[in-house]
Structures are given as C-alpha cells and as structure tokens.
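Weekly modeling sync, notes
Attendees: AB, CL, MP (scribe)

Item 1: holo prediction request
CL wants a bound-state model with 5,6-dihydroxy-NADP before deciding which constructs to order. AB pointed out that an apo prediction alone won't tell us much about the pocket. Agreed to run with the ligand included and paste results into these notes for async review.

Input as submitted:
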Amino acid sequence: MNSFQFVNPTHIVFGEGSADQVGQLASQNGKTILLVYGSGSIKKTGLYDKTISLLNHAGLTVHELPNIEPNPRLSTVNKGIDICRKQGVDFILAVGGGSVIDASKAIAAGVLYEGDVWDFFTGKAVIGKALPIGTILTLAATGSEMNGSSVVTNWEENLKRAFGSPHTYPKFSILDPTLTYTVPRNHTVNGAVDIMSHVFEQYFSLTENTPLQERFCESILQTVIENVEIALENPEDAAARANLMWCGTMALNGGLISAGMANDWASHGIEHEVSAIYDIPHGAGLAVIFPNWMKYVHEERIDRFVQYATRIWGVNPEGKSDKDIALEGIQATRDFFTRIGAESRLADFEIGSDKLDRMAEEAVRYGAIGSFKRLEKQDVKAILELSL
Ligand code: NZQ
Ligand code: ZN
C-alpha cells in the first residue's frame, strides 16, 4: 500500500424525506441562491416546487439556471457565472444528476476567477477558491455529490475535460433514494455501469498488498450487480434504489475505497473523447469501452483479473489457465452489461471509424494515460477499434 491522505468534507443527509431539510441546510451556507437544474425532470416529479417553497420559507432569495444538458456545456456554465455575478449569488444548489452537479461546481469556481473557467479544465489554472455548493441528488451514478470533480464539454471545440479540486466538494448532499424512482430505464443502466466503472478504475491496480481496498471494491461491484436488475424490474423498489445510490456515492468520493492504490482512469479518458464528439451518455460509452480495455490490458496483472473473475462472477478456476479464467471474467462483465440493456458497440450509436484517430490523439494530449498499463495513442486507437 502507498502512503496517502484522505479528507472528505461533504455532509451527507441520506434517506426518504431528507429533501425536507434543504431550506435549513442551504441557509447555513448562503442567502442568495442559484438553483441549478436540468431539462425538466424535477418539474415533473414535483421536486422543483417543493425545493422552491422550502428555500423561500427559509427566507432565501432564489435565482435559477435551468436546462443543464446531460454532458453539460461550457456555454451554459458561463451563463451561470454571469447570473451569479449580476445577482450577488453566494451559494449554489444543484438539483439533479451528475451533469447538474458538475455544472454547478464549474460555476462555483468560475465566479471567483477573473480568467476563463475553461482554464481549470485545461490545467492552465488551478482553483484557489469557489462559492459553496450543495446538492439534491436525483440519479445514482457519478459520485459527484461527494467528490470535488467536474466534467464539462466545450462543444465548439468537441472537447470534454475534467477538473478535481478540494474547493468544490459539496458542503452537503441530500440523498433521498425515492427521488430516483422516476429515473428512466436507460439512465438506471448507465448509472450502474458508471458506478461499476469507477470501481474498475481503482480495482485494476498494480499496487500490492491492498486486501481491504480490494474488498471494498468487490463489495460495491457485488451490491450493484445484485440490485440493478431489481430496480429495473421494479423502479420503486426502495431497498434496491437506496443500495444503488449509496454504491454510487461510495464508488467515487475522493479515493476512500482505493486509498493508497494507484488508479487507472484510462477508460474514462477514452470515453470522454467519444462523448465529446458524439454526445452519447457517459455510462453508455463506458459499457462499450471497458470490456475492451480489459481485454487489451489483462495480461499486465493476470492475478487481479483472476481474482475478479472468481470473486465477482464465480468463475470456476478448476483445470483452467489464468488467462482463460481472466477472459471468462471479462466475458461475464460484457454479458452482464448486455443483459441489463447496455449497448456493446460504438456502431450501436452510429459511430464509425472516421474519428478514431482524433479521439486517440486527444486522449493522450497531455501524455500517455492509465497506470495499470500506460496507453499511448496507438493503444487507445486499438481499444477504440476493438469497440467498433
Ligand atoms: O435533465 P433532467 O430533466 O434532470 O433529466 C436527466 C438527464 O436527462 C435525467 N434524470 C436525472 N434524474 C432523474 C432524471 N429523470 C427522471 N427522474 C430523475 N430522478 O437523467 C438524464 C441524465 O442525467 P445526467 O446528470 O447527465 O447523468 P449522470 O448523473 O450520469 O451524469 C453524467 C455526467 O457526469 C459526468 C459524465 O461525464 C457526464 O457528463 N461524470 C462526472 C463525474 C464526477 N463529477 O465525478 C465522474 C463521472 O465519471 C463522469 O465523467
Ligand atoms: Zn464515470
């Protein structure tokens, strides 16, 4: 295990009815609020009316930024920054999924920065301060509710980039699993794939002697596998939705489950390049890329793939080579994604080979990616070719 530091300052309020506390929690953090949300799901479910009423009741002034896109746009973030400056906003409340939360973090950092907020995504500048943000999460997927990361798309340049900062952890996040009952089938699937992928990025590691972290990872994978089909069968299954939600938050919250381990994150880098051009949902892209990344890299550390196959998928190792066991585990992953309804090929999104070169080039723009196996441009291209 490597040396590490771990801090996570986000106050989690979990459980049915927890959104009732939003007025009180928000008023501890600010007076003039920017309420950020997506393209309407919170209006349909009544969460919008309820939130406005609770914020008003707490004596807060509310401004709004609706229509955050899935794969949020830099142009929309800039709109939010303008509103905050004009209205003297001192607290941002994100109500939605990862896209809404990520846009809110970018706005929070951008308001207090004189330059272009995109500088934080290109590495040209480092976030020194940000407005406080809080969240009401409506979709189990990204972990953005308890981490400092934001992923934004510069649509004009077809670039999707991330930042991570200790200044953009939410002050609080309200996690009411019943708010995810209305998440459509495809986004429930995409969320489950994203959660599992966050675990993969940490679990497939070259760091030795990390049994606790590996079991943390395996417990999340098993819990998602056990619960997602229940939620798909019955979207209002309270236990399944609660388990998925907590898995999402635990899978990516500043490195708790992989403290002291090298992380990989190459598959996320590759997927972001696909979404940057084709605007496909993040989880849907990962369902295509990840099994192919596994095929491409498994020989770097076959024992971890053998452990994965046997512990997660119950592959019987008797009489088989390590490679065969590993490949069975990878196939079981692919089969599971397919069974829950995730696509398996880029062609399913009408993505052909014409932009593979550009995607591979951008993925390694700042150098080789990944730590399990360092991937150069030709490796990224090979994984994309396997994914066609
Ligand atoms: O826009 P609305 O109307 O709210 O609809 C959304 C959206 O269409 C809908 N939805 C959300 N909650 C719902 C609901 N529909 C009905 N009922 C509800 N309760 O779901 C759709 C997808 O929402 P989105 O926020 O885009 O999904 P997700 O949470 O998967 O976020 C994806 C974004 O997060 C980034 C991705 O790249 C992508 O841009 N990521 C952020 C990370 C982070 N901050 O740590 C890490 C991830 O790896 C990821 O890259
Ligand atoms: Zn992800």
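Recorded for review: The first strand starts at residue 11 and ends at 14.
Action items: CL to compare against the apo run; MP to circulate these notes.
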